[in-house]
Structure formats: C-alpha cells, structure tokens
Amino acid sequence: MKKSLGPKSLIYPAPVLVVGSYDSSGRPNLMTAAWGGICCSNPPSITISLRENRYTFHNIMKTKGFTVNIPSEEYVEEADYVGMVSGKDEDKFQVTGLTEEKAEFVDAPSVKEFPVVLECRLSDTHEVGVHTQFIGTIVDVKAEESVLDQNGLPLLEKVKPIIYAPESYTYYGTGRLMGAAFSIGDKFTK
Amino acid sequence: MKKSLGPKSLIYPAPVLVVGSYDSSGRPNLMTAAWGGICCSNPPSITISLRENRYTFHNIMKTKGFTVNIPSEEYVEEADYVGMVSGKDEDKFQVTGLTEEKAEFVDAPSVKEFPVVLECRLSDTHEVGVHTQFIGTIVDVKAEESVLDQNGLPLLEKVKPIIYAPESYTYYGTGRLMGAAFSIGDKFTK
Fold it and tell me: ipTM of the predicted structure?
C-alpha cells in the first residue's frame, strides 16, 4: 500500500556531480550538484541545475564552460565539503588538497584525483522555478586508464561513483553488477 | 593518468526511470529513461529527455501528465523490457504482468509493484539536440509504506533502486550507506 508524501524533489539514484569553474579572477572553484544528468545523446549534453546565489552560477555565465567531475567513494568527504561552503569564502582545492587540472577544451578546472571528468561548453540555460538549468555540450570525457575496460570504456565497479539520497541526505556506494541492458529483459520479448 | 574518450553521454550513476503515460485511446504505456533527474527543488521538478519517435513523447504532449516510477532491483527485467519495445506495438503492462494504478493527480498510469512513484504535471519542454526535455512539476510522491523510515521518508536501502551505466549498457544495484550529507565533509570546515 502506497502512502502520499506530497510534492518532494526525490529521485533514486541521484548523482553526486562536482562542478568545476573559474571565477573572473581565474580562481578555480568546485561545487556539488545532485540536480542534474544527461539530457541528450546527440550532441552529448548534460543538464545541471544551479541557483543564482551560487558562486558557480556566475562563473559559468562568464566563462561559458564547466567540468563535471565524478568522485569515487574514497572522496565522499571532499565531495560533501565542496557542497557545504561557498567559493566566495573558501579556496576549496586548497582546503581539500584536491589537485586542479585545467580542462583541455573549455575554460574550467577539473579534479585530477576523480576518475571521470566531463568537459562541457555551455549551450543554453532555462529557468525552472528557483533554479536555472545549465545545458552543457559534452566536448570530451576524460577517464583514468585504471578504470577502463578492454573496450576503453569506464567500468562502473572501478569508477565507484557515489549515490545521493535526497530528503534523507545520505550517501551510498555502488552495488553489484545485475546484468546487461537491452538484454536482461529479453524473456518478455518471446 | 587520464585518457581522452571523446564526446560521450556518460554519467555515473545514471538512473533507471520508468515513465508512465496514457495514449489518446486511454491505453497505458511504460518506457524506461536514463536521461533525466531532478531539476528544481521549488517547485519540485523533474526533467526527462525523450526523442520525438517515442510513443510516450506524444502521449505526454496530449495528456500533459506522466508518472516517474522507480523500480527496485527485483524488477530489473521488467524495467529493461519496457525500454526495448514500443508501446505502439505492445501492451507492456499485459506482457510484464505489472499492475496499472491510475495516478491521483495527473492523467497517467503508475506501477503498483514499484516502491516509489512521482506524479508529474508537464510544465515546459525544451529542445536539446535530438531530444526534448520534458519538465514536470512533481505534484505528489507516493511510496510503499514498507520502504519508509521513522520520519516517513523512503530509505534507499529499502527502495533498492537500479543504477544504469551508459555506454557499457549495464545495470548495478545500490551499495552500502557511506554517511550523512552536509556532515561527512565537516572535517574540512575546521
């Protein structure tokens, strides 16, 4: 039996995305976003929702570029911290000890220690309620060689991304491999 | 050392969202979407990207409502199947044996067996490349009582959502509780 919980911004899983940007003086910043995801396959595009009071909001508006860095489980403390304080007040690379690597194709910093990085060029913005969606064209994906499989694609069990549970404000790890998509449901096509 | 993989629509974790809609003759349909997520806290809103050749695309354009159903691990085969075939050709509720429950606040069907359902009213659409973002205001969340914690919120380890790994086309389960958000990173604020 289902119970009505009212209107809530709940989804499972929500991602833990660490957005990298430069401010107008070239100082790098990081912030954590859970409101985002892929929004198009062609051209590969991502959407990230930010509020206007975020430092990152104004950085991206100026530079038109950002990175989306996927932290692995071992960096859950760093990923949490960069979502707690503002880049106006803190140099988050310095405080966490994470290493800045300049993106190759966009004007934004990325996190050397995180296994997967998306380099994104701002292509559009849309206002939705108190948030603005930043649509970014993914111009390159960079991944640590140690997380790649024999086809050169990241393996989720090596990336070990973090899952966020909204409303209960908790982080979880990734579980076991369950099967192949477009295949495990084949039994219903017979 | 990172390797460049080129532009790819990759993110970890991607969700497995089963979208419910009615066609113009009132027949219920389900489809699986991985390109989506929460896009606003106030009003609570979700974005789902669909291609125009999807049956669900035209259903939602007509009814202005849809549900987002979160399958638990035990329904990974059903969730995969409903993303493999078109509702033009198949009655996916009938084939899978999933039970249709009419949503309370929008004109859309939901899946009784899935632990969490979002009832969404179409508020806007945006074109992004070959996809269209459907922005839905979440007018209600419904969850099985058995997955709720003492505060009346869904517990992720009871919901057991499925994680999708794009490009490698694989499904994973949810892992262990790692800690509390806005807390586990506290050590860096000292």
Answer: 0.96
